[in-house]
Amino acid sequence: MQNTKKIRIGVSSCLLGNPVRFDGGHKKDQWLVNILGEYVDYVPVCPEVEMGLPVPREALRLVGDPENPRLVTNKTYIDHTKQMKKFAARRVKELEKENLCGFVFKRASPSSGMERVKVYKDVDPKEAKNAGAPSLKGIGVFARTFMEHFPLLPVEEEGRLGDPRLRENFIERIFVMQRWREMLDQPFLMRNLIRFHTRHKLLIMSHSIVHYRAMGKLVAHGKQTVPHDLLQQYQTELLTALKIKATINKHTNVLQHIAGYFKKKLTPDEKQEFQEIIERYHSNLVPLIVPITIGNHYVRKYGEEYLQSQWYLNPHPIELKLRNHV
């Protein structure tokens, strides 16, 4: 069911091992490069170097109001805020042409941090050591511009990707985004949207039953809506739904839904086994891959055509082992 075409996602350049950090070093992330890199094409971005700062250089920090901080050098307090904002506004326009399906930012970076970036009090440099602890409410200047420009695009930080659930959610979203973009590349046909929605029903349900119902209504009344508006509304609902984290309870509901398709096909022993495994997952005794594997087994054994088409059962390459840990 997987497409072999690589997914294009943006990434902070230092995470690929490029020596662009202030000290001339890098922060190569082995998982991003060696594991996920098999399935994606990266578009590296280093805002500080691309806007004209050298390597090595004086480190930067955010100071002032966390909602609208200034970007200054650590010791000399040279202000690069306007320069960075001007660069960021231009760069995100350029990135529109890349058809990105997501972006991975560098944690804690004053230019590229997605959240919880240190913001120091805006005081005289001589008094900085006595200014107290920094706030952790900042967002990197470039990252803020990017997320405002692409508000629904999947984004994460390399640090947060160490959390199995956040990692699985992000990767699932970029694969959905790729499939959505591929559909948009084709001339609009209502049947293509219906097919896309049908194949993603259970996956959407695992995130938000509210959005699942709303999207169903959109598609059901799609012929009454101008195609451009319909696709925009559907895309907003889709990406908003997928930002909502799937939970054990939501997955359990979907698994029970899957089991319902086999109520007249499974033997009594098979029914009991499936229910026991779903309950073990619900009790957090086994990871999601266990009930998913037996579900796929029954789909294949009994030729359940509707479930064969469901991306929920195979949302991303099994080699990534994402559902082994959630």
Automatic annotation (TrEMBL):
Pfam families: 2-thiour_desulf, DUF1722
Segment forming the signal sequence: none
Transmembrane segments: none
Domain DUF1722: 201-317
Entry protein name: Uncharacterized conserved protein YbbK, DUF523 family
